[in-house]
Amino acid sequence: MHKQAIPAIDAALTPRQGVTRLGQPMSYNRAPACDLAPWIGRLYVTAVDLPPDYRLDCSLLNDVAVIRIQLSGQWTAVTGNGVMEMGKSALLFGPQMKAMPISVTGSFISIGFAVRPGTGAAMGWASTTNIIDRLFHLDDVGLPGTAILNQIDPDGDAEDWLLVIEAVLRAEVARRKLGFPDPITSRFEVLSYRDPNARIEDFAKDCGIGLRQLERIVRRDFGMSPKQVMRRARALDMAAHLRGVADHEEAEQIMLRYYDQSHLIRDFTKLFGMSPRQFVQRPLPLMTLTLENRQARRLEAIHRLEPGAARPWE
Hints:
Blueprint: E1 14-15, E2 28-30, E3 40-49, E4 55-60, E5 65-79, E6 82-86, E7 89-93, E8 100-115, H1 120-123, E9 135-137, H2 145-151, H3 158-176, H4 183-194, H5 200-207, H6 211-222, H7 226-242, H8 251-255, H9 261-272, H10 276-281, H11 285-301
Antiparallel strand pairs: 1-3, 2-3, 3-8, 4-8, 5-6, 5-7, 5-8, 7-9
């Protein structure tokens, strides 16, 4: 299996929220307020200083929809609905089936939050399959993008920005009288964090539903089949381990989820477009930031980390 190595660093970056023990950029991220937790998985602020004309080429791979408020930087993304370019903007990124190429020129600030699976049906997209690998301006899908941009003070601090977003979301939940996600969806989300090698058939039986019904629910709320969700979850945990933003006490368990080296390389290359070795040898700051946010959410969801506690990679 792949041996742990020190992941590459892009020396041009100066992350304002500091770096991990291995020198990887970090964001300011935290769990949502308790009243928003049924719909929101994690909030984050990432601020990075770069030379004015420096172009950072990277990619993202998120397992849930993410709303991102880009306060600065000139961004380009290669999405399922074409190449999109944007500056200051409020955006909905659908979950990705494979890594989405993305670049940013100059210093940037990105604020946002993960949307928990099952929330979309109440927020405007009837099925997550409609947004998978795609990118939308919030106003175009009936969400309060302009309202968020107008209320964020560019001179505020990270926590001020997240409180503004939570206030807007709280009003949106009340206005829409938002219902809770399907409990099957919520249970499957936690299962993907806890044991992505679990048997789908056993999970359906434990929930008291048939396998076909589970398939319909998962495709609606995750945008892909249950097996694809689990394969991606397994790869995301391995990717976080390789970038040094996972719990080192889980390292052996994460690696043993793959039968052998060829199994790891095949799955990893399909999702990330590169081998595990290349993934370590290349600076991938945007990818690492998204992996770190997911791992923080994951460890809290499976009760390996108390909310607000120091994370293992800090």
